[in-house]
Amino acid sequence: MAGNIFGNAFRISTFGESHGKGIGVVIDGCPAGLEIDEAFIQSELARRRPGQSKIVTQRKEADHAEILSGVFEGKSTGTPIAIYIKNGDARSKDYSHIADKFRPSHADFTYHEKYGVRDYRGGGRSSARETAARVAAGAIAKLFLLQKGITITAYVSQVGHHKLEQSYKNLDFNHIEDTPVRCPNLGMAQQMIDFIKEVRKDGDTVGGVVEAVIQGCPTGLGSPAFDKLHADLGKAMLSINAAKGFEYGSGFDGVTMRGSQHNDAFYKDGKEIKTETNYSGGIQGGISNGMDIYFRTAFKPVATIVHEQDSVNEAGEAVKVVGKGRHDPCVVPRAVPIVEAMAALVITDHLLMQRMVKN
Amino acid sequence: MAGNIFGNAFRISTFGESHGKGIGVVIDGCPAGLEIDEAFIQSELARRRPGQSKIVTQRKEADHAEILSGVFEGKSTGTPIAIYIKNGDARSKDYSHIADKFRPSHADFTYHEKYGVRDYRGGGRSSARETAARVAAGAIAKLFLLQKGITITAYVSQVGHHKLEQSYKNLDFNHIEDTPVRCPNLGMAQQMIDFIKEVRKDGDTVGGVVEAVIQGCPTGLGSPAFDKLHADLGKAMLSINAAKGFEYGSGFDGVTMRGSQHNDAFYKDGKEIKTETNYSGGIQGGISNGMDIYFRTAFKPVATIVHEQDSVNEAGEAVKVVGKGRHDPCVVPRAVPIVEAMAALVITDHLLMQRMVKN
Amino acid sequence: MAGNIFGNAFRISTFGESHGKGIGVVIDGCPAGLEIDEAFIQSELARRRPGQSKIVTQRKEADHAEILSGVFEGKSTGTPIAIYIKNGDARSKDYSHIADKFRPSHADFTYHEKYGVRDYRGGGRSSARETAARVAAGAIAKLFLLQKGITITAYVSQVGHHKLEQSYKNLDFNHIEDTPVRCPNLGMAQQMIDFIKEVRKDGDTVGGVVEAVIQGCPTGLGSPAFDKLHADLGKAMLSINAAKGFEYGSGFDGVTMRGSQHNDAFYKDGKEIKTETNYSGGIQGGISNGMDIYFRTAFKPVATIVHEQDSVNEAGEAVKVVGKGRHDPCVVPRAVPIVEAMAALVITDHLLMQRMVKN
Amino acid sequence: MAGNIFGNAFRISTFGESHGKGIGVVIDGCPAGLEIDEAFIQSELARRRPGQSKIVTQRKEADHAEILSGVFEGKSTGTPIAIYIKNGDARSKDYSHIADKFRPSHADFTYHEKYGVRDYRGGGRSSARETAARVAAGAIAKLFLLQKGITITAYVSQVGHHKLEQSYKNLDFNHIEDTPVRCPNLGMAQQMIDFIKEVRKDGDTVGGVVEAVIQGCPTGLGSPAFDKLHADLGKAMLSINAAKGFEYGSGFDGVTMRGSQHNDAFYKDGKEIKTETNYSGGIQGGISNGMDIYFRTAFKPVATIVHEQDSVNEAGEAVKVVGKGRHDPCVVPRAVPIVEAMAALVITDHLLMQRMVKN
Q1: Containing domain of residue A126, as a range?
Q2: End-to-end CA distance of chain C
Q3: CB contacts < 8 Å between B and D, how many?
């Protein structure tokens, strides 16, 4: 109800503010007997962490994930897994100047309207720091999926106007982590990096797109009516900070196609039924058909810019706002592990629920 | 869990198949004392109904909504409101030829994989007929919202390549129902109609985009983290049959903007705080800011075409499939009331939940 | 949230009022491929139906359950199963005299306070008629359990002071349906019947206890912390009209025992681990241990009596209330199938959820 | 689904094992702007803590509740409140001797069956230590209720055969905390204490009953059908470790009454409608009527006894089990604050949900 819980069978509950004591997550419904590789959780958090390169924010966050419960002798016990990530110290100073001001296109004003009170330090709960808890939970979901042969891979396919026109099939995913921008086409990656540096020099920010592919997903996941697999993936992606749009398979471009082009013809490949094309994006009628699931998520330019901007304060007076903290000029490189984490949570949830469908 | 329930505070549960006895919905959580205008429910269903014009399917569905419970002397009692819509007769004949065949890009194959059994007649539960139940429930949500001064308006903004480039602000919504294509720009509407007729003559289908605007929505709706208002709207839209993408505010186009352009400056307008621009689409940090909420939903071309297509049957043998039933060449005109209904359900749900947020 | 939905994996949503058009239930999550024996559903409803004998109310209710969806060619399809039971005609007359009066120990006053409006005819939604929908859903749960070898048997063990002191192990369940009071000890059954007739002659009512036994339940059902199996059974029983108490295993009597007496020693019986005694009632730490699960539910005397009683009306004026409709002098014989239905729903729900627990 | 989440609007998620790093709770849905008195949370935990007197276990638990999130400048922010209680050190030694043995009437066997793996130290998640998290969450619920004038008071009314026959109305609640047994009748308290000491000397344990009263609860709380207020209270109580039964109002004794005696006549007291008697226990038709809500919860004798007992181990071999750790001879004195906490959670949840009922 209050919006901090996600999932049905594999249900996570996140907590924590940007500048409070720490953030964390409780996972209720992780199957018992899963090997929990703590180093893997840590490495996923490292991918999300700020300060990885010149093109992302220079804040340093240690982001050490401490497992508080639910794991015994290296395995999940089936009881709630709580993971806690302490915040670093002394970070409240940067925000005193905006305590009663509403930063444009941040959540300051809407939180104030919703709750009446708010933790103004670094955005409080509305900070993207909350997503570290998601990445930690997502890492456990990924461990569950990996043993089932399901992989989830995300990468940056657009920054500003710099857009990768290739299909994911023609990309070498091994190059994703080669550059800080996480675009596997290294030529395009360099263009994106140069562009982000330029934008950064202007004290400005820019948006981008993260593309993701789920491979090895069995048929049958997803529900009719409301909990269609792509609807749950869409909600998951749109719940990430700064997300503005979601499309899967042919997406918005499919609008201009005719049915005779867009329909994916079935054929038999050995024992498996496959489709010749995959405009469906691996999902038909809301249910996975065994083909690759792929989708794109759009992210807006980060709201914190160095420029002076017009705004109002809590008293309703006209004020000027200038960004001070250390922020990302472009959010998408760091959004990559978050997109993967959220996708892993959705697929794990549906895999577990599918166990209940047949008599 | 099984995916046929939507909403938290205003929770609906739909049931029924295309060619079973009927379809329906149970609404749990409709506030008591709301005047239930049955004629309005009926008129909303009429907007969704097939057979309205030459550009939509010629099937005739009476779609009479019968209220079975929860309304007494014209008012909601606070107990579950069940609405039932009987199916017409003798509609199973058209489907016997595809009983064991998987129609390309339909849900036949995925339902078969998910459940092992399926009602193959007219798509069974995967039929868009299920959305009539949503429209009935959405009509009650609209009645709730209307008395709060909140309106929801959707229209067709694209069919194939025919795309309306105007902002909703420059359109006269009074013209939406003037044409069967539900595009308020009458010149563009005619282009769309001509194009759909052409596609239909080819035995083919085409996709489109529905745009929607929510006006009068108060500040504070939506939750941090997962249940952001646009994430819930996105899931709602993506749960509609044939939906392929969702974007709100600046959407995918916002990706190419810089933060300095994209940020919406706050200013004081009398007693209200407003924004100069509205790239945020009325939602910041997942919470409504009082400005208009607007979003776009992409729909793929309908999968049923008259052309012969390659496919396989349940035995895995190669077969040919030819569409026979009466189907829409383009789904978007009839998707308009469904988009509105789903949006009404989401806003009503969040309005009720917001009552619990403050001490 | 609004309280008309029960269960997680096997989730039911009931609707309808005593004197509205009808009542019904939507089951979301019934596994696909289950054979649905409609005659069995009907026979379960017949057990709950009024007018079965002189010791229950003489109202005649046909209670024909019509399956509206979710079943195709005799099998569940995995999609929502809606069941509708039309109400008989012309039943509103009996209640006009109490339209604005609050009958003592009925829900008239509390519904008025909760909702502001209410359907006063026959108690509206607060009528025990709602339980017919539960029995219909429970019948489907029973069909699911039967094929797994799980049986649920309830019977009347107390009416007023007439209390059966035998353990269920010493009773012949074949005699339960031999008498209208549903007590398998025929001598005690006669005492109960005589007593109920006497109470009825006085225009009065009396309470009783229903005992239930679940046999064949596998180990492992139930959850730690909140959703303990007995906690969910308890809630299910306490949600039945007129229920006042619930106990399982040693129950309230266990309070006076010492741990050394009360502990159930484990032993090996072939390949199975069993307990020598079963004070635990088949549930330890909230999880089933494979032994019989047994519990008792207390029901108060029916509130509708023929005597004149003091009360107030909606205007707050002192009034007299006299029961007129046809009512049960004792509710417990008809509560037997309801107790079984609710138990079947809980066990089915937990059986399905248990499928998700292991890696 | 996995059973570690409780509540709808005021939803708590607990985590942690007896001998892991710690235990905790995340509260999602605490209204914003509530003053959070940390000292009060601490004092509630102190009431539950072991080692308070000779008649409860001598284990020392510091039980310091650390608020990790959701509170800013002393007030709730409306975002999740996470509370963490670290476990003390070096407590695993006592349990190595029972690592593969199933202690009679503990959850060892059933956890083993359910999960396949388990944290055997001190019962792991099945330990009553989990209830400390509930008491912390319940303290915040109590703070919410107190400002609304609602109080919840529990006390011990029975230990073994020593049973207080007085109504709560004739007791002075100020004496509850005067003795370690928490019975407000000091004469009876001494009898109970003497009896517990005697049982303890025998290396044995005994059960008891906790009675609770909710005063100042407004009319209208609770839902029709499934989520009746007493059904939710019942589930809450039955979810506490060692609970065996629940009854409210007249409870099991009401079974022997006639309707003419049991019905609570309404009358007008100034502007309020009250009832002459209160056999209904403040709840009619599942909804609060404004009168005192009172109920009783039965607890079995603690399973850990010093005596040698027969059992089996994981290999299915016959073994002997002897209790070693420090345990309570009687659980009920420490159950008092847990009963209050669970009741506070239920009432808070329903108070918030009631805000959504009217148009």
Answers
A1: 5-358
A2: 31
A3: 45
